[in-house]
Amino acid sequence: MRSSNPVFTRRGFSRDGGYAGFNAGPQLQTGNPYAGSPTNPYAQPGNPYAQPQVGSAGGFVPPAPTRAGVMTIDSVVSRTAITLGTVVVAAAAAWITDMPVGLGVLFALVALGLGLWQSFKREASPALIMAYAVAEGLFLGAISNAINAVAPGAAMQAVIGTMAVFAGVLFMYKQRIIRVTQRFTKFVLAAALGFVLLSMVNLIVAMIGGGNGLGLRDGGLGILFGIAGVVLGACFLALDFKQVEDGIAYGAPEKEAWLAAFGLTLTLVWIYLEFLRLVAILQGD
């Protein structure tokens, strides 16, 4: 299953079928660079997540000592904490200094460029990811401060909402309540494409005719659109968890943990911004 997240689509973390739960064993899949293979350095018998392999004589290959230098839950958590921590620190700096929204938008464009650059790189670049985190944090701090000025408490409510969504999706993922299948992935991709296209049309109509375009960012329609954005972000989180799990199961290189952190940060930023807009609309009504 290919990830909808551009960070993971070029890495080949994929497994088909079954429930998405931690410690599930990898399955063989053609074209997957991390799938089990006699020549694959990441799919050795020592993989603690791998299923026992049948040997040529019909016996099972005995497990070997766990290899060093592979991606683990601890490495993903630590890199994600560093990346998100940088975003928070940069956002706090922009908030405290009362950074103008215009400058924040400029940093948003910088973050977009850096994010696309990293997404299409063959390897993770910690320096590039941290630069993205700084630029994204400055934008979030500026826009959050501006919205919080007209809707007091919006920023904190958006943070709490984002944390609640993250915890809820993680719990349902680990409890196998969420089933990440090819059909689920295709549905999320189609929904995301429609969401982005509608947002672009709304922006174009707003620029041409003025006002709020199609009305997707205020009133009752704006509330529904905001809820759809949060739900879509939650679906992306489930896909991200699945790709991280597969990378760990197949023994992906430790450097891939930076990509996992980057992908999770992208999704959490999406959810936070949707919550921020949603709270601002609700307080404005």
In words, what does this structure look like?
Helices cover 64% and strands 0% of the residues. It has helices at residues 6-9, 73-96, 101-119, 126-150, 154-174, 182-209, 219-249, 256-284. It is mostly helical and 285 residues long. Residues 1-65 have low confidence and may be disordered. Helix 4 packs parallel to helix 8. It contains 8 helices and no strands.
Q: Could you give a short description of this structure?
A:
The protein is mainly α and 285 residues long.
Rg estimate, integer Å: 21 Å
Mean pLDDT: 79
How would a crystallographer describe the biggest sheet? none
User: What's the oligomerization state?
Assistant: single chain
In whole angstroms, how far apart are the ends? 42 Å
Q: Could you spell the SSE succession in H and E letters?
A: HHHHHHHH
Strand content: under 5%
Kindly name the structural category.
Answer: mainly alpha
What's the total count of β strands?
0
Morphology call:
globular
User: Low-confidence stretches at least 5 residues in length (pLDDT < 50)?
Assistant: 1-65
Q: Helical stretch count?
A: 8
Into which percent range does the helicity of residues fall? 55-70%
List the helices and strands and how they pair.
Blueprint lengths: L5 H4 L63 H24 L4 H19 L6 H25 L3 H21 L7 H28 L9 H31 L6 H29 L1
Labels describing this entry:
mainly alpha; disordered N terminus; 285 residues; globular
